[in-house]
Amino acid sequence: MHVRAANIVRAGESLMRLVSDLKQYLILNDFPSVNEAINQRNQQLRTLQDECDKKLISLRDEIAIDLYELEEEYYSSSVCEPSDLPLCEAYWNCDSLDSSPPDFSSPLVSAETASSNNQIHASPHLNGGGMVEHS
């Protein structure tokens, strides 16, 4: 009787180990549910990315409009001299001449550049948002 009882206990323990191994195998190798979880998380992150992109585009457009209004105010004020380049042109001209930061205290424009500058202000140009604006 003791031998039979010991065999039954060993068989029970073997079944318990087998069930445990099957559970572990199912948890670790359940590729459809793992793939589904990955796809769901991927979709959540893509949605978050789209929301962030929309917010960034909105901020860019708002900043472009504000910058355009500030430039209009600056160039129509008494502070601006007729020989002044638009800020972006002054930056790029200085950047192409050397790698030092621009010196905005002295005019960067010759008489020839000033006349072409007047033509630039008379023609449509792109603001920071990529929209054509007329000055």
UniProtKB/TrEMBL annotation:
Main location per the UniProt record = nucleus
Protein's organism: Aquarana catesbeiana (American bullfrog)
One MF annotation (Gene Ontology) recorded for this entry: transcription coregulator activity
Q: Which Gene Ontology biological process is one annotated for this entry? A: regulation of transcription by RNA polymerase II
What does the function comment of this entry state? Component of the Mediator complex, a coactivator involved in the regulated transcription of nearly all RNA polymerase II-dependent genes. Mediator functions as a bridge to convey information from gene-specific regulatory proteins to the basal RNA polymerase II transcription machinery. Mediator is recruited to promoters by direct interactions with regulatory proteins and serves as a scaffold for the assembly of a functional preinitiation complex with RNA polymerase II and the general transcription factors.
List all Polar residues biased stretches: 112-121
Q: Name one GO cellular component term.
A: mediator complex
Task: Give the UniProt keywords, A-Z.
Answer: Nucleus, Transcription, Transcription regulation
* Biased segments, Low complexity type: 100-110
Q: What name appears for this protein in its UniProt entry?
A: Mediator of RNA polymerase II transcription subunit 22
Localization annotation: Nucleus
Instruction: Give the start-end ranges of region Disordered.
Output: 100-135
Question: Which ranges form a coiled coil?
Answer: none
What domain of life is recorded for the organism?
A: Eukaryota
